[in-house]
Structures are given as C-alpha cells and as structure tokens.
Amino acid sequence: MNSVSERKSQLRKELLKTRNSLSESDWSKKSAQIITQLKSIKQFEEAEIIHCYISMNQRKEVDTQLLIQEMLSQKKKVLVPVTDFEKMQLNTVEINSFDDLSTNKWGVLEPKSLVQTALKADLVIVPLLAADLKFNRLGYGKGFYDRFLKSEKSTKAGLLFEDFLLPEIPVEAFDEKLDILITEKSVYNRNNQNQPS
Rounded to an integer, what distance in angstroms lies between the CA atom of residue 96 and that of residue 98? Predict the structure, then answer.
C-alpha cells in the first residue's frame, strides 16, 4: 500500500495535468464565476484586511489578479504571501498597488518590497489544487501554507474549480483544514451549510 504522501503526490500529478489542460476560455470564465461567488459571502464583504495569494495564471490557478486590483481600489488592505525558501515559510507583505509587484525568478508575481507587515487578516484566500467536503486541502506539496495557516486565526477560504472537489483527499497529520470552499457552482461552509448559487 502506498504511503499517504505517495498517494497525494500521485493525485497531485494527475490533477495538475488535468488543470493545465483547461482551455483559456474555460479557465477564465470559471475563475470569474468563482470570484463573483467569493465577493457575495459576508466574510468577504465585512473584511477590511484580506490576505490573498497572487495567482500563477500560467499554471491555471483560480485567477485572483483582477480581484486584488479591485480590492485595492475599494480601499481594502491587501496582504500577499512571499515565499521564503531558506526558512521554508510564508512571509506577509502589504501592497498598495499592483505596480508594487514584479516577476520573481520562478515567474511568480511578488512585491518588490519584502518588508513584512504586522497586520492580521480578517480573511485569508488560499490557493489549492483540490479539496474534499471535509475541508481538507491538497496543495502543491511543500507545506508552506499548512505551516502558515496553523497560526492564522482568521477565516480561511479556498478557491477551486468544482471538478477538483473530490470525494476524499489523503490527509497527513500536519494538513490544515479550510473553513470555506468556493467553486464556480457553490459556496461550501465547514458547518455544512451548502449555499448553491
């Protein structure tokens, strides 16, 4: 029997291939629907400080780039993650404009200034590859977000395409659950209050 980490690794490989095969128009349309769902939840409407991943659009993550620009124009405070590979942790940086970002050596947008903020988010918007309805998240396998989320007390919302909501995801002890899952079709709350659109 394969270990949990081997099963996760295999699943990750298959799902990345599936997600990469999404057409540009499908990816774009579904991303926009997911963002519309996100903006309709009270946790988003009431949040003044939002921590949001900057989507890697070339990898077909749910697109958050327009959302970030919109939040900034609405005068919400926007925090973004920066990966510290030496310390194997995520640092949090506040941005005031999309112009504060530039492409790093991995092709990922990140802040030009890496000064950490002490601000605490009301809502954390988390990237993921897949999830299940027990609110387990399948990430990219490096554990950065699990370590980060462990100390986060705010609401944690994951954005994903409905096809990547699976019956079950293999789980390890360090995996952190999410509070809300948002797809193009529904908002799933951890208290099992499903809110179909």
Answer: 7
